Amino acid sequence: MLLAIDAGNTNVVFAIYDGDHQRGIWRTATDQKRTADEYMVWLTHLMALKGLRPADIDSTIIASVVPGATFNLKRLCKDHFGCEPLVVGQPGVDLGTKALVDKPEEVGADRLVNTVAAAATYKTPLIVIDFGTATTFDVVDRDGNYRGGVIAPGLNLSLEALQMAASKLPRVEIQQPGHIIGKNTIECMQSGIFWGYVGLIEGLVARIQAEYGEPMTVVATGGLGVLFAKATHVIEHTDGELTLRGLLLIHKRNTAQ
User: Fold this and answer.
1) Phi/psi at 138 (nearest 5 deg)?
2) Does residue 110 have an active-site annotation?
3) pTM, to two decimals
4) Which of 6, 110, 138, 239 is catalytic?
5) Is the pLDDT of residue 167 over 70?
6) b/e per residue 137-173 (b: at least 16 CB within 10 A)
7) Which of 89, 102, 224, 228 has fewest C-beta within 10 Å?
C-alpha cells in the first residue's frame, strides 16, 4: 500500500491507497517541530481504526511546501515504514509535466501535483484554483504543462489581517450571507469577505482566459472550494482530493505500476 503525504502551510494530509482505492485519509495541523515519532504515534492509532498496520505500507510519496516539516516526514517514512520516499521536486522524480516558467525550481510542489491530476482528469487547458493558506490560480496548457498563474492571499489569512488591523471588528464565520448589503457589523464583514472573494475569483478567471486566448476548464480544490463553487458560475468542477490523486499518479509513473 502507498502512504501519500501532502504537507501544506496549514495542514499535513496523510492518505493510504491500496491500488487506486483510498483506505483512509487524515489531517493534522502543520507543525515544523513535530517529530517523526510524534507523527507515528498519531498516525498508527488512526490507521488501526481502519484496520491498517504500519507493515501494510510498502511505499511512500511526499509533496511539501514546508521545508522545515519535510525532514521529519522523510524520517517518518524511513524509520517507521521502512520506505525511502519519493519527494516531489527532488532530482529523478518524473512528474510527467513541465513547468514552463521563468524559474521552475520556485514552483510549489502542490501546484505541480495539482497540474498532473487536473490534466489527467479534466479537459485542458485548465485553471486550477486552490483555496489554501494562499489562493492560487494555476494555468495548465493543452499538453498538461504548468504555464504559470496567480497567487492571492487566502481567505482566512485576509480575514485574520482585517481583524488584527481593526481592533473593534469581531471574528466572524466564513459563510455566504443572504444579501450583499449588511445591516450590522458581522453581516457587513461576511458580505465583504465572501462576495469580495467571489469578485476576485470571477475577475481573475476572466482575465486569465482573456490573456490565454481560449476557453479554459476551471477546477476548484481546497477546503473552501465547494462553498465558492455554489456562488459563482465560473467554477465548473470541485475536487477536494486533487493533490492526493496527483501524488498517486506520480507514484505510479515512477514505479511503473
Assistant:
1) -115, 135
2) yes
3) 0.90
4) 110
5) no
6) bbbbbeebbbbebbebebbbbbbeeeeeeeeeeeebe
7) 102
